[in-house]
Specification:
- The protein has 181 residues and is of the alpha+beta class.
- The protein contains five helices and seven strands; from the N terminus they run E-H-H-H-E-E-E-H-E-H-E-E.
- The protein has helices spanning 13-26, 38-43, 45-51, 114-128, 144-152; strands at residues 4-7, 53-59, 75-83, 97-105, 134-139, 156-157, 175-180.
- Strands 1-2-3-4-5-7-6 form a seven-stranded mixed β-sheet.
């Protein structure tokens, strides 16, 4: 299967937002399920795209040269938010660091390389960002398939950067990974 990564188009924002929300919900990654406030952020692709780069992995019409320009967008398999330099979308990136956020792949597209393609696209963007020396991300303990992708691409655990997005709840700790460029 040919997978192409590219910036998300505005007409794909709603679809990608729902794909992302459903991936997190169905994988049990939201502590409060359907009532989790983070669902709104996952669905708000337009908001993310206004302050960061939102990428999609597509197959189909959009994977053939010229097809996107001709109107064939391809089928969206997943997406990711790439934060090249701090700003409102950065959770943990410091000076000289880019960050990967909200990586999600549709259940029907998993184990086909879409997630890895999205991470590789972020790494390429980080390398092309002037002054960027590292790319960081946080992940949940249960996201073992994602951990394998990160490690295969050279990311290493950075336990000193593990953090809790909801400090008032003791049992939520996100694991940090980083890749020095």
């Amino acid at each position: 299967m040919d997978i192409v990564t590219r910036p998300a188009k505005p007409y794909e924002f709603e679809e990608l937002g729902e794909l992302t929300a459903q991936a997190y919900l169905r994988d049990g990654l939201l502590d409060f399920g359907e009532s989790d406030a983070y669902l709104g952020e996952l669905r708000d692709v337009a908001g993310r795209a206004a302050v960061a780069e939102v990428l999609v992995a597509v197959e189909g019409a959009g994977t053939r040269p010229g097809a996107v320009e001709a109107g064939g967008a391809g089928r969206v398999l997943g997406g990711v938010t790439f934060v090249p330099r701090g700003g409102p979308m950065a959770d943990m990136a410091g000076p000289g660091e880019a960050e990967i956020r909200m990586l999600a792949v549709a259940r029907t597209a998993r184990r086909r390389g879409a997630g890895e393609a999205l991470v590789r696209a972020c790494v390429e963007r980080a390398r092309a960002t002037e002054g960027c020396v590292r790319i960081v991300l946080s992940t949940q303990r249960t996201m073992r398939a994602a951990h394998r992708v990160y490690e295969r691409l050279g990311f290493v655990r950075s336990p000193g950067r593990d953090w809790n997005p909801l400090p008032h709840l003791d049992d939520i700790t996100l694991l940090a990974y980083e890749l020095t460029l």
